[in-house]
Write a structure and sequence with these properties.
mainly beta, about 55% strand, about 120 residues, 11 strands, seven-stranded mixed beta sheet
Length: about 120
Amino acid sequence: QVHLVESGGGLVQPGGSLRLSCAASGSIFNIYAMRWYRQAPGKQRELVATITSDGITNYADSVKGRFIISRDNTKNTMYLQMNSLKPEDTAVYYCMWQRLGGPLNGYWGQGTQVTVSS
């Protein structure tokens, strides 16, 4: 099992910045993809960003140029640096890791609330 815990969420003003963390524990090996999702009230869950084991990143158009996904393998942690935040970024943010030999749909954290409001 891989256990994931998101942190770093909170209330931030429009235009501000926030960094989310996703700390992993358990059977952390052969991780081939790490992803950030978000879900706003009344809306579908959407994929925000992905980073692969070889460092390739992808972003949703809505966050491209504002968000940066990264990882620190020595700390078993993934990050999402969020800049120029907008009210529409308000959502619960979830991290998801996929491991070779593990569940195809990956392992999920409990989520952390991000609220962008003045």
